[in-house]
Amino acid sequence: EQQVQQSPASLVLQEAENAELQCSFSIFTNQVQWFYQRPGGRLVSLLYNPSGTKQSGRLTSTTVIKERRSSLHISSSQITDSGTYLCAMEGNSAGNKLTFGIGTRVLVRP
Amino acid sequence: AQTIHQWPVAEIKAVGSPLSLGCTIKGKSSPNLYWYWQATGGTLQQLFYSITVGQVESVVQLNLSASRPKDDQFILSTEKLLLSHSGFYLCAWSLEGDWGYEQYFGPGTRLTVL
Fold it and tell me: pLDDT tens across A16-65, in order?
């Protein structure tokens, strides 16, 4: 069964600090997607990064396929960055099934 | 621009009662559609996917069923709810892009079964 491990489980930041979130996969994948889950539950797609490095604003994701891992770097954190960050991979099952990690809870303090 | 709606926003239902959750995607033609479920404190799991109208595949057996009666509509239902059905239900869509199938999620429906 394909699995996604995320670390750390939680993170407390001082506003303006940087953070690095990690994701590792039990199998090789060619599709990795990072999401932000709001406190109410809604998922916001942050970055779709099957390989290499992608950036969107203050977020940078690096995926290394052969090492079965991906990272999400948050620079200059803001209070509004608080929430849960989910990593998901698509494995080799039908239906473009995304397998999700349990997430990293981020709290940014003023 | 594409939009995805889910209804209802939240439901409180009794064990054994029927359920119907809906999802509509506007602004995209023939998208792939997906239902996901998240138990409180748990990980998101894909339940169903659909590539075309009238065709739905089950991924996880949870005593739920899904249908796609129109190109832009995806319905999740059951005739008898269980306590274990409580959680957050998310609908998603995708289209094949240069890099694969990036998925976009709706706002979700929170279901409480008592």
Answer: 999 999 999 998 888 899 999 998 889 999 999 988 999 999 999 999 99
Q: What's the domain range around A94? A: 4-109
Q: Is B58 part of the contact surface with chain A (CB cutoff 8 Å)? A: no
Q: With an 8 Å Cβ cutoff, is A80 touching chain B? A: no
pLDDT digits (tens, 9 = 90+) for B1-40: 778 999 999 999 999 999 999 999 998 888 999 999 999 8
Cα separation, A25 vs B89, in Å, equals 24
Rounded CA-CA distance B93/B20 in Å is 19
B3-113: in CATH 2.60.40.10: yes
Domain total for chain A?
Answer: 1
B6/chain A closest Cα distance in angstroms: 11
Q: Within chain A, where are the H helices?
A: none
Q: Which long-range contacts (CB under 8 A, 24 or more apart) does B44-47 make?
A: B44/A43, B44/A86, B44/A88, B44/A98, B44/A100, B44/B90, B45/A100, B46/A95, B46/A97, B46/A98, B47/B76
